[in-house]
């Protein structure tokens, strides 16, 4: 018997008893089902988008935000979008005090989401079904929504907003979050950012905003296309007075220290008995009727169930409602808060002044 292997492949196959014939079309591996291929493509696209969001967040730590989805939407609606990015050093500290006082008093304390404020908002919404819902979104959440997402969108958008809130808290830090927020916030009529708002509403730079002007801009943030900062109605004036009173607490108690530094904090003299922490005055609710009323929901808000529990936790309402800190509540019960200053009525020809407003300590 010869040990020589046959040179003919067919003979070799016969010789060894193995079918080595290459598979033909009939023997090809069956293709994956269509649904599986679609699922794989969707997963790949999702991973790509997820990575792009994080790369974009890293870039925005150093570069100005080129724009937002809401800006694009306003432009498509025919509005003349106006914005002018400026650094935080070119924005008056009064506006930082004002937005913290009105939107997020615990901005320097929470890690991006204020769970206490969300829980209080949920309790309020349960007791006031059918009325305008309150939310507990923070400045960090609003920044994440404005920069990366859009208004509305349900659970997918809110879940993404919550995640990106923690991302920017980790990557950007509080000062950068405030800087971005004040440059992308909407102030109505296609106006975005503090500089464009200051120029359009008061004819001056954001660096020169007075206490009253800053409080006016902060007062209209929940509904900038309905309320006017330069021609305020009765509710906006009332809301402004409340914010002015809260600004003093924010400045003197160091609530803005993570943005402006410790220089804004009022310290007791050596040997002086430490003062009890004051309580922030509540901001009045928007009216239910009239020109300044916010639109009520089309139908009553249903009772909470298992399906909407997570949606509420992720802040179903985009409207911000800031609760007062509980520290010092007993002191407030014993000692009534100071009467808020009377806000002077503006005239068409003269910008509003700060006469009668609280004294705000600003960093040197």
Largest beta sheet, briefly? 2 strands, parallel
Count of extended strands: 2
Number of helices: 14
| Helix-strand category | mainly alpha
Order of helices and strands: HHHEHHHHHEHHHHHH
Instruction: Round the Cα radius of gyration to an integer and report it.
Output: 29 Å
Q: Provide the residue-averaged pLDDT.
A: 78
CA-based shape = globular
N-to-C CA distance: 104 Å
Quaternary state of this entry equals single chain
Strand order of the largest sheet: 1-2
Low-confidence stretches: 265-269, 298-340, 345-364
Instruction: Bin the strand percentage.
Output: under 5%
Helicity level: 40-55%
Please describe what this structure looks like.
The protein has helices at 9-16, 34-60, 69-76, 93-103, 115-127, 139-148, 154-171, 174-184, 194-202, 211-219, 234-252, 257-260, 309-313, 329-334; strands spanning 82-83, 191-192. Helix 10 (211-219) packs across helix 11. The radius of gyration is 29 Å and the shape is globular. It starts with 8 loop residues before the first helix and ends in a 30-residue tail after the last helix. The chain is mainly α. It is built from 14 helices and two strands, in the order αααβαααααβαααααα. The protein has a two-stranded parallel ribbon.
Task: Please describe the topology of this protein.
Blueprint (H helix, E strand, L loop, with lengths): L8 H8 L17 H27 L8 H8 L5 E2 L9 H11 L11 H13 L11 H10 L5 H18 L2 H11 L6 E2 L1 H9 L8 H9 L14 H19 L4 H4 L48 H5 L15 H6 L30
Parallel strand pairs: 1-2
Helix pairs in contact: 2-7, 4-10, 4-11, 6-7, 6-8, 10-11
């Amino acid at each position: 018997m010869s040990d020589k292997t046959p040179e003919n492949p067919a003979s070799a196959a016969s010789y060894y008893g193995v079918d080595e014939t290459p598979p033909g079309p009939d023997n090809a591996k069956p293709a994956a089902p269509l649904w599986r291929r679609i699922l794989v493509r969707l997963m790949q696209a999702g991973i790509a988008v997820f990575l792009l969001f994080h790369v974009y967040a890293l870039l925005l730590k150093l570069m100005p935000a080129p724009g937002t989805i809401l800006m694009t939407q306003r432009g498509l609606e025919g509005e003349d979008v106006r914005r002018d990015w400026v650094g935080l050093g070119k924005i008056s500290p009064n506006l930082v005090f004002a937005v913290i006082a009105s939107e997020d008093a615990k901005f320097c304390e929470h890690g991006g989401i204020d769970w206490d404020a969300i829980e209080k908002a949920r309790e309020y919404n349960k007791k006031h079904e059918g009325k305008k819902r309150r939310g507990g979104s923070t400045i960090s959440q609003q920044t994440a929504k404005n920069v990366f997402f859009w208004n509305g969108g349900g659970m997918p958008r809110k879940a993404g907003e919550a995640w990106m809130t923690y991302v920017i808290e980790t990557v950007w830090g509080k000062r950068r979050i405030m800087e971005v927020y004040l440059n992308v916030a909407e102030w109505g009529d296609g106006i975005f950012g503090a500089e464009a708002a200051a120029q359009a509403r008061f004819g001056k730079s954001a660096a020169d905003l007075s206490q009253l002007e800053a409080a006016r801009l902060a007062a209209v943030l929940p509904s900038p296309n309905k309320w006017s900062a330069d021609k305020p109605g009765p509710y906006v004036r009332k809301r402004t007075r409340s914010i002015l009173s809260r600004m003093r607490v924010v400045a003197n108690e160091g609530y803005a220290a993570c943005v402006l530094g410790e220089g804004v904090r009022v310290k007791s003299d050596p040997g002086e008995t430490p003062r009890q922490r004051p309580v922030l005055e509540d901001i009045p609710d928007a009216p239910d009727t009239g020109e300044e009323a916010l639109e009520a929901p089309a139908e009553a808000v249903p009772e909470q169930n298992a399906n909407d529990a997570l949606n509420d936790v992720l802040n179903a309402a985009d409207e911000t409602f800031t609760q007062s800190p509980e520290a010092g509540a007993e002191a407030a019960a014993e000692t009534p808060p100071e009467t808020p200053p009377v806000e002077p009525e503006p005239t068409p020809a003269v910008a509003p002044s700060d006469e009668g407003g609280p004294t705000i300590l600003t960093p040197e």
